[in-house]
Amino acid sequence: MHANSGAERRAVISLLVENEAGVLARVIGLFSGRGYNIDSLTVAAVDESRSLSRINIVTTGTEMIIGQIKSQLDRLVPIHKVADLSAAGPHLARELALIKVLGAGDKRNEALRLADAFRARVIDATTESFVFELTGNTDKIDAFLALMRPLGLAEVSRTGIAAIGRGTAVMA
Amino acid sequence: MTHLAPATAKPDRPQSGAEILLRALVDQGVDVIFGYPGGAVLPIYDALFQQSAIRHILVRHEQAAVHAAEGYARSTGRVGVVLVTSGPGATNAVTGLVDALMDSIPIVCLTGQVPTHLIGNDAFQEADTVGITRPATKHNYLVKHPDDLARIVHEAFYVARAGRPGPVVIDLPKDIVIAPAPYAAPAVTPHRSYRPNLHPAAAEIETAIALLKSARRPVIYFGGGIINAGAAAQLADFVRLTGFPCTGTLMGLGAFPADDPQWLGMLGMHGTLEANLAMHGCDVMLNIGARFDDRVTGRVADFSPGSRKIHIDIDPSNINKNIAVDLPIVADAKLALAALIAAWRADPRPGPAAARRAWWQQIAAWRARDCLAYRQSMEKGAVIKPQHAIRQLHAATLATGRDTFITTEVGQHQMWAAQHFGFTRPNRWLTSGGLGTMGYGLPAAAGVQVAHPEALVIDIAGEASILMNIQELSTLAQYRLPVKLFILNNRYMGMVRQWQELLHGSRYSHSYSEALPDFVRLAEAFQATGLIAESIDQLDDVIATMLATPGPVIADIRVDPTENCYPMIPSGAPHNEMLLGPDQPASSPFVSDEGMALV
């Protein structure tokens, strides 16, 4: 079987890493150096007492490539734990988007109605613009952006996802 | 291991970072450093000057310092240590670091750095060494506080050795090695995050033995992991216990004795017919400590199509990287082999003996093709065949009875050495396998000779490769290192020439070695002995003189410039489509369009 054969899948990979200089560069360098995809990436300190940060990566690849990504990550010295949340079972993933929509008249009213339906919050407004704050999984944000496109969508800032497994199991 | 230098053993004053660094090295068992001084490492060189526990070998180029440390490491099984300055010192070392990374050689490379307050200011001889060496090392460190210095040095040695070995860089800003620093002994607690799995699971061993016991056409394929694990004795035990044929990679040569009847020779692009056809036709393959490299597999889609594959590797990322396997076992090769030996002995099943006899008969038929044969005319004045030169060298070294180490450069001579020099012990064969670094052999040989002053150390070289680190003749002269350079001089970058002949219509674009030096006079300029053999009648005398000369020697062996290295699996071809020689062209088109794009 060839490394590039088989169907591709999306994987949500969470890493617990030593909170030290250069660790993010090691992870990103691994992806670019070996030609893997990064669809999104988030990083923040999560445990000050143990000096740990969590990195969440969304990637796409064949089963062999995703297996390679996990084992290549796992052998980086400052990485404590590698978890494939999408393979481990049900998990939650959320991202936040700030969305600027410009316009007036009916389109502006329609944008506001749709934002309400999506539970997006208005966090800034002028007579010709809104900034919406929207939280949800990637599909929900994609769907909202698609609706805003004909209504004056002008600028988007997205965080990438934070992800966690459901239930009592803990990544530590 | 803790023979502290008098200067650092009982400090009656705060010790500088440089002194703490050396004390940590001594605690790690370091007795030799290969290096080159410069502004950022002057405090470390000052501390070296004032102690006697660590010997410093001055190379003539930082790339050579790393290759010398690789030679030291591969021939001793210990960690090789390098010390270079900031900026160009560090960037020159990068090729050596990648070489060690690809071939899994444990190295700790200390690089100088500009003082912390100047980092990021484009200071004189500043380079982003941790940034540049991040993909060139197993791990790297920038020491930012004197308090961290000793701990980082100990950790670097652990990381270099543990699991799959590799190079580690410690970047040392000048102010850190000047300031007082506390000492910390090596940690006894496990590393926080890096703890490779060493022990095979019992269930995996049981499944492996069931597969191996049932095998009708088995083959054992091993690589450099056997040598890194110190598992050559266990490998030989297991191979003989099973009675299975075995083959090895370029990096594994010497881990199993080449004069053993169960040895099929090296496999891969320039491997033997019997090794490659056994790999192609086997029904059960046991890979121990090899990584299914593209030089071994050929076209992956057609690699050993009918076999069930067991892969034992200490690095989980080598599993299913190039070839999907049926039974992966992540473990140390020595522990895994010990478990396999015990489990094989405990299992009374005899296995299909008749089928295995037939398999050995098939292998004997392949062997009878004598795929490494060459035609050497023995008439006076006849041109020397490079294969014959290596066979005569091998026979002559055997006759001396001396412990012999062979290094090589990269190209045809390297493949001929791998094919024709019969290695019987591990750690005696040092070559740049993964990266293919021309210029490796001379500095590596210097490192081997430093570690083994009494041994016979020979660099089998080509006339093009040897010029890439020829400045190290000066290092040989300074330390009276009696390394022998055995140059197979065919006046071409031979492997480039071979590919141009076979793949590019014999258009020999820039592969002729114009304006070569007179190697005999070059030797004399560096206080070495220069010898030349221009025809077959001179070969044995030159070899005998070279081996009898106490100091360094350059032997310029003029060989057939048109000789090609066979057998050869063309790029992108499977194992069963080998070229055996110029008289036996491949039945199918020589190289596919896809193959042309491969290296």
User: N-to-C terminal Cα separation of chain A, in Å?
Assistant: 34 Å
Radius of gyration of chain B, in Å, reads 25 Å
CATH hierarchy class name of the largest domain in chain A: Alpha Beta
The number of helices of chain B is 23
**How would you describe the shape of chain A?**
elongated
CATH superfamily of the largest domain in chain A: ACT domain
Uncertain stretches of chain B: 1-8
| Count of individual helical segments of chain A | 5
Main beta sheet of chain A, described? 5 strands, antiparallel
Number of strands of chain B: 18
Q: SSE order of chain A, as H and E?
A: EHEEHEHEHEEHEE
Oligomer: heterodimer
* Radius of gyration over C-alpha positions of chain A, nearest whole angstrom: 19 Å
Tally of discrete structural domains of chain A: 2
Explain the overall architecture.
The complex is a heterodimer of chains A (172) and B (599). Chain A has 172 residues and is α+β, with helices and mostly antiparallel strands. Chain A is built from five helices and nine strands, in the order βαββαβαβαββαββ. Chain A has helices at 23-34, 63-74, 85-88, 105-117, 138-148, and strands spanning 8-18, 40-47, 52-62, 79-84, 91-102, 121-126, 129-136, 153-158, 162-165. The two termini of chain A are 34 Å apart. Chain B has 599 residues and is α/β, with parallel strands linked by helices. In chain B, α2 (17-27) packs across α3 (42-49). Chain B is globular and about 75 Å long. Mean pLDDT of chain B is 95; it is low at 1-8. The A-B interface holds A 1-3, 18, 21-22, 25-26, 29, 33, 64, 67-68, 71-72, 74-80 and B 130-131, 134-135, 138-139, 142, 159, 163-164, 192-194, 196, 300-301, 315-317, 319-324.
In short:
The complex is a heterodimer of chains A (172) and B (599). Chain A is α+β, with helices and mostly antiparallel strands and 172 residues long.
